[in-house]
Write a structure and sequence with these properties.
With about 550 residues, the protein is an alpha/beta fold. The protein has helices at about 20, 35-40, 40-45, 80-95, 110-115, 180-195, 220-235, 250-255, 270-280, 285-290, 320-330, 345-350, 355-365, 435-440, 445-455, 460, and strands spanning about 15, 50-55, 95-100, 130, 155, 160-165, 200, 240-245, 265, 300-305, 315, 335-340, 340, 370-375, 465, 475-480, 485-490, 500, 510-515, 520, 530-535, 540-545. The structure holds alpha-D-glucopyranose.
Length: about 550
């Protein structure tokens, strides 16, 4: 454990992985920590710095592990605590950090706390959860899982009362007003941090408290609690991080950073759909709009930015018109939709168009924030919209063209989810790690390369952003600057070639050196700087000033 914070997350690239989906080490049809440990070289070779693990705790798995029945152990299907410790130690050896999901807001209804709580008001655990005799309490709180839930209250036959839940009805919300709950969660926190985790992704953070007359999101009490948690971290685990999941507009996320004394990082939810929107509209304005609307955050904080994750591509942070556009463009089949979002993977969303995939990564890896990649996207994995809920984007990792895509030795029918084997480009015989690595021109190698280039510059993780706003709305152009370093990014959001003139007088005399090939372009003179870009093309330039050269 280091004693001084290194702020490593500011420059980090995260890799989100489901231990259940990655590699099956014991042949039971389910990924596990033995398999994940064996895959660490693969993860390190991608060039990422930190693994984000989806929930690995004992659970009835009615929400893929986000329904926890014991916070202090590993799900037996994934291994045991020793397997987990070995995994952590092996990750450390490879300089990989590891954060895990911490589900504070709710437990499974199978958790012994809830089983006790149901027994009635006199049970000491009753107050661990949020109960009411009146299901109209907190009426202003929205329903999140609109496809499955009709109320945030569910009647419990045993307790003869209603209990509160912001997600599935089998996930009762814990009562954070109860100091005992806060203490229990601190113990959970300590338990995992003492094993050597580098921090947590704090799941569903806006919903911890409830207050009448509010929408029960982002309440001041939550910030008080987070400050306490952070102060405890600073004292005991100063180099660890809290990455919050607050699916909110930036002005509501800002308070979660506090004065640099709450969350270290937070996902930038509203940026994500706009990355997709911008390339379909062939117009940069929604991107500039959302980034301009994003307030600056304390120096030691960082955004986590992403294209896809294990959930539906959420469309909560767009207007109704934009949502209709996104649904029309990206989810024409109703089966592709879920709740307020789209349950598809990156490559199918972009119709397997390599140029668009590269362009979105060119933006993801150069916009303010630390990129979070989702397992399988680096090898162009497809999805299965016929699987329920969000499982279509959580199918087994595709390693090679052997049985079960090399994921497991089990019988195919034994797998926790089928591998993608519909004939075509997403079949695991085509989209797999081995094939991607054998082909030197694959997206996989392209990405590994780009990640390597990103790491040479501090400006990506630390710099501010200045939009150049050329007349051509199809060109998105910005400069990221940090100390003496300036990176110019120019991207063509359209499917056809585009010219652009850039106002770069501030950098007059500098030479734009294209970063991936280190090729110097013409020096910036007094005239607007002219470039042409191919379909969905983009450039990253290092602006080298004469004195620096
Ligand atoms: C978070 C998770 C999601 C889960 C939900 C309820 O939003 O990302 O997968 O279903 O919390 O725990």
């Amino acid at each position: 454990m280091s004693t001084t914070p290194t702020h490593w997350y500011k420059d980090a690239i995260f890799y989100e992985v489901s231990p259940r989906a990655f590699l099956d080490g014991n042949g039971d049809g389910m990924g596990d920590f033995i398999g994940l440990t064996e895959s660490l070289d693969y993860i390190r070779d991608l060039g990422v710095n930190c693994i984000w693990l989806l929930p690995m705790y004992p659970s009835p798995l009615r929400d893929d592990g986000y329904d926890i029945s014991n916070y202090l152990d590993v799900h037996p299907q994934l291994g045991n605590l020793d397997d987990f410790k070995r995994f952590l130690a092996e990750a450390k050896k490879r300089d990989l950090r590891v954060i895990a999901d911490l589900v504070l807001n709710h437990s499974s209804d199978q958790h012994p706390w809830f089983q006790e709580a149901r027994k009635g008001t006199s049970n000491p655990y009753h107050d661990y959860y949020v109960w009411s005799d009146d299901p109209h309490k907190y009426a202003e709180a929205r329903i999140i899982f609109t496809d499955t839930e009709t109320s945030n209250w569910t009647w419990d036959e045993t307790a003869k009362r209603f209990y509160w839940h912001r997600f599935f009805s089998h996930q009762p919300d814990l009562n954070f007003d109860n100091p005992k709950v806060r203490e229990e969660m601190l113990d959970v926190f300590k338990f995992w941090m003492d094993l050597g985790l580098d921090g947590f992704r704090a799941d569903a953070i806006p919903y911890l408290f409830e207050r009448e007359g509010t929408n029960c999101e982002n309440l001041p009490e939550t910030h008080v609690y987070l400050k306490e948690l952070r102060a405890f971290m600073e004292r005991n685990y100063p180099d660890a991080i809290l990455l919050g999941e607050a699916n909110q507009w930036p002005e509501y996320v800002l308070p979660y950073f506090g004065k640099g004394d709450q969350l270290h990082m937070s996902f930038h939810f509203p940026l994500m759909p706009r990355l997709y929107m911008a390339i379909r509209q062939e117009d940069r304005h929604s991107l500039e709009w959302i980034i301009n609307r994003t307030p600056s955050i304390p120096e030691t904080c960082q955004w986590a930015i992403f294209l896809r994750n294990h959930d539906e591509l959420t469309l909560e942070m767009v207007t109704e018109e934009e949502r209709a556009f996104m649904w029309r463009e990206f989810a024409p089949d109703p089966r592709m939709r879920l709740n307020v979002g789209i349950r598809r993977r990156l490559f199918p969303l972009l119709e397997n168009d390599r140029r668009q995939v590269e362009l979105l990564h060119g933006l993801l890896l150069s916009l303010p924030g630390s990129p979070v990649l989702y397992y399988g996207d680096e090898i162009g994995m497809g999805d299965n919209v016929y699987l329920a809920d969000r499982f279509g984007v959580r199918t087994p990792m595709q390693w090679n063209d052997n049985r079960n895509a090399g994921f497991s030795r089990a019988k195919p029918s034994q797998l926790y989810m089928p591998v993608i084997d519909d004939p075509g480009i997403y079949h695991y015989q085509a989209a797999n790690v081995e094939a991607a690595r054998e082909n030197k021109t694959s997206f996989y190698w392209w990405l590994v390369n780009l990640i390597g280039h990103r790491k040479r510059f501090k400006a990506f993780g630390h710099g501010d952003i200045h939009f150049l706003q050329p007349d051509n709305p199809k060109i998105f152009a910005y400069v990221r600057s940090y100390e003496l370093e300036s990176i110019l990014v120019v991207a063509n959001l359209s499917r056809v070639p585009q010219p652009v003139e850039l106002e770069l007088s501030k950098w007059r005399g500098a030479t734009p050196v294209e970063i991936t090939g280190q090729t110097p372009f013409p020096q910036i003179g007094p005239e607007p700087y002219q470039l042409s870009l191919g379909p969905h093309g983009f450039y990253w330039f290092h602006l080298v000033t004469p004195d620096a050269a």
